[in-house]
Amino acid sequence: MSQSAYDFRRIENTSGRQRSEQLYRASASAFVSLSRPAKVDIQQFEELSDALYDRVSDEAKRYVAAVLAPNGCAPLAVIRRLANEPASISAPLLAQSPLLTPAALVALIARHGDGHARVIAKRSDLDPAIRALVALLIRDGSGVTAEPAEAPEQQRIKASAEDVRTALRATMAANAEPAVLPANPSPSREALLARLMPTALSGNPRFFRTALADALDLPFAATESIVEENGATNLLFALRLLALPVAEAFMIAAALNPGRYLTPHTISHFAKRYEALTLDAARDWFDGFRAASFDALAEAEAAMPVLHQPPANEALPRFRRAG
């Protein structure tokens, strides 16, 4: 008797949560036993998994993650949902699943931080650029954490990603230099910075430009030369001014310029440039950039044609009624 058949036999004598647990396990075992699952098989397994997911234990999810890890035909929605669980559950998928593309892997690190990053680093087929970036994130024992620091003096500005494409979530060791922002920022200021990451990952540069304009108190038009600049120097200065950790700054830059940072060399070059840039230099750049931006805005407004408005006592033209 196969393992899947044995599991289904056991279900007949159970009820309630235990039944859900065993059905969840058995359905996964049955699915992976199919050498060539048809579309209907994939759909049925996905629907059953979705229906049972919230009723099963972490142990059951861990079992299914291990069973599905080497499978290349599993429903992508099932794989993604399990991969977003804590690393203690999702580790087999993170380390083995052929369905997790490089973009999906960096998205997972963006959401979950150090725990996922360390497991993903064990993949034998990991893209060299991702491997180099993971090494950057965890170097010197510094951890990437998805949880906010508890002590006020240890708080760092972090951004959470709701949706991701080609970026990587990270934080680096605390910067020795004083941050531009207050050590314990107000919720509103924290919220402004928290918008940078998800908007950068959204795939729409205008969303990020809006968030950046709010964070830097710049006109929206001024952010075009920061985000869309070919050399990315202005973006480097802007992110440094906000005192973002180097890996978080890289994550945003890579999301906005996915074709620029494809090798370990380009990743390392970005990190070295960013870490060499002082906050004083970033402030000097910003003072000049902001002044020039407002001057350009004033000139543009002055060049706009002035519409003629009739004096207050001037009679408005009368229109003949039709008909």
Q: Which descriptors apply to this entry?
A:
323 residues, mainly alpha, 2 domains, 57% helix
Q: What is the percent of helical residues? A: 55-70%
Shape: elongated
How much of the sequence lies in strands comes to under 5%
- H/E order of the elements? HHHHHHHHHHHHHHHHH
Number of helices: 17
Distance N terminus to C terminus? 89 Å
Structural class: mainly alpha
Count of individual beta strands: 0
Task: Report what the structure shows.
It is a single chain. The chain has helices spanning 3-11, 16-32, 39-52, 58-68, 76-83, 87-96, 102-112, 114-120, 128-138, 187-194, 196-200, 205-216, 224-227, 233-241, 246-256, 264-276, 279-303. The chain is mainly α. It has two domains: 1-96, no CATH class; 101-302, no CATH class.
SSE inventory with pairings:
Elements: H1 3-11, H2 16-32, H3 39-52, H4 58-68, H5 76-83, H6 87-96, H7 102-112, H8 114-120, H9 128-138, H10 187-194, H11 196-200, H12 205-216, H13 224-227, H14 233-241, H15 246-256, H16 264-276, H17 279-303
Helix pairs in contact: 1-2, 2-3, 2-4, 4-6, 6-8, 7-8, 9-16, 14-17, 15-16
Concise overview:
The protein has 323 residues and is mostly helical. Helices cover 57% and strands 0% of the residues.
